[in-house]
Write a structure and sequence with these properties.
Number of strands: 6
Shape: elongated
Order of helices and strands: HHHHHHHHHHHHHHHEEEEHEHEH
Helix content: 40-55%
Largest sheet: 6 strands, mixed
Number of domains: 5
CATH superfamily of the largest domain: Ribonuclease H-like superfamily/Ribonuclease H
Strand content: 5-15%
CATH topology of the largest domain: Nucleotidyltransferase, domain 5
Distance between the termini: 98 Å
Number of helices: 18
Amino acid sequence: MPHYTEEQKKIALGMLDECGSVTEATRRLGYPSRSVLYHWARNDDAAGRRAEGKIFSHYPAGIREEAIRLAEGGLGNSEVASRLGVSSPTVVYHWVRNARRGKQPMPKKPTPVIGAESASDGFEGDEVERIRRLELENDILRGVVDHLKVGCLERLTNREKTLIINSLRLRTECPLRELTAFLRISKSSYEYQRKALLRPDKYALARTRIQEIFDEHDARWGSERIWAELRREDGDTRPLVVSEKIVRRIMRQENLKVVYCKKRRHYNSYGGEQGERPGNLVRRNFHADRPNVLWLTDITEFGLGQGKVYLSPIIDCFDGKVVSWSISQNPDAELVSTMLKDATSVLRKDERPILHSDGGVHYRWDCWVRRCDEAGITRSMSKKACSPDNSACEGLCA
């Protein structure tokens, strides 16, 4: 570091008082560096006094935060410097840059929200400026409704914001800087999206073919099947090689939604835990040494042309014989009661079979339990939602 005499320091500080700029003073004298002259100015009481327009002087508390807030709100650096009395737009630029880099706290600013509150709060300036900003917000709101039918700026993509800005620039005289600041999109992002909108669609052929295939199959084919169809060569139609992800994205953009048929609701006899559930005495061992020792029962639904029919049989595990059965158009208590009454009529006095069923509501009604007790039948029941526990009867009725 070069050594400067006191006379050189005095001349440099005098030049600084004369021109009011550190940069200009160092340029005229050829010495010292800007940082050294700043240091001399801070240590000199006369030169350190606050003076209008001197870049080396200290600004009052809060002016830096106010400058950052205005710059973030969309004003240019020159306009901020002129409004607050800052000596140079460069100073404002460095304040904003340091705040964005985290070297100094970024002042909190109100978030513009689409609604009545944003129209009455957060405006700076006189009444004319306030009216002009209200008109700007009104135009932006109309652009949002016209193009996207949404009501939240945070949900807009940069492409959607660019569409709104292009529309407003054709209908209003608002400067681009204010539009980009209000919609929170940088100038570079806007220019990129604007040029991207002017480029031809490289998936135009794929978009047409996807639409044709989707309509040809009555909105029943999804992205994977359409993707496979595009890659297949058929006569004069050449294969079109694109990724399945591109097909899915194009279908989403064109609002091509697959129409799914509702699955037929199968019959389910479970009606909740009603009363005490008996244990599983069979444990999937569907074998018996003699007749009328182990019985199985179940209810099966059949869809016929005239309507639905319900079959309820009792099967003997000794030889697979159907001991009794009943059929009805309604799966009610009478269906199983009739079946049980016919089955108990063939039992001898010394026969006490085990009757195994699922956990359906028909086998837990008081009438069913009472009839089983009167006939000396021991009840056994499968675990909930476990068809293998009653697979022998399930296989017969299927």
